Amino acid sequence: MFKGGKWLLGAAAVAAAYPFVEARRYGLDRTTVPVGRGVPQLDILHISDMHMAEHDEKLAKFVTGLPDKIGVPDLVLATGDLIESDRGIDITVETLNSLEARLGRAYVLGSHDYYQSRFRSYMKYWSRAHRGEIRAPRANTVRFETLLQEKGWIDLSNDEYTIASPRGTVRLSGVDDPYLKRHRTGHIRRRRDDSLAIGLVHTPDVVSEWALAGFDLVLAGHTHGGQVRLPGIGAVVTNCSLPTGLSLGLNRVGSTWLHVSPGLGTGRFQPIRFNCYPRVTLLSLR
Description:
The chain has helices at residues 3-22, 57-64, 66-70, 89-96, 141-150, 207-212, and strands at 27-33, 43-47, 75-79, 104-108, 154-155, 159-165, 168-174, 194-200, 217-220, 229-230, 234-235, 249-253, 256-260, 279-285. It is of the alpha/beta class. Helix 2 (57-64) packs parallel to helix 4 (89-96). The mean pLDDT is 91.
């Protein structure tokens, strides 16, 4: 083969391998959230879409090393798709329990926490017709949640929880996964004496429910930031009903901030990322 052909072949091999490499380049983002006067100035670790499997030691090492980088935040909030299968339950629980918080740790679940991953046509990401339709073995969700709650994690699925902070009441309000149509929204409301109100959801489609209720911040996952983002275009597909421009990072929805995590995992059958690194985010309310 001529020299130029070998160079092109090598370049093509590197380009083909890169998305698999990027999918394991875990990192920490630090984002400031502007808030009004009187809102508690808290640090919140937002973690989502870990999709942890039995042998994800590199991801576990990254997460368990976060306290050395950020110390102890005020809150640790997880927004679902934390496991990929039942075999990932133990390592996921051990990893999450390594994260401490001053005021509390809370979570909502995603579809992968209810169903074990199995292959489906990639065309499902381009169609809404099959959203919420799951044909996969059930996960041992009860065991997963029991192990988390034994260590003090708060389940916010279709529920709310209040925390007394030095600067007033912090309200946490979550819903179960809208992708599976398990969500209920009747409890979403802000009280007059709430200093800060935060919503948690896996799929961000229903962010307007918290925006209409006057919440300060909503945390979500599910989109993986698109997982593949093209320069000048952004996310190619997000598997949710929101505009692709809201699929990643911090954005305004009315007077509410929406933060959509790019997540740390990819899913067993889509193990790539491009221009969308796996991240956990420290949100600083200031």
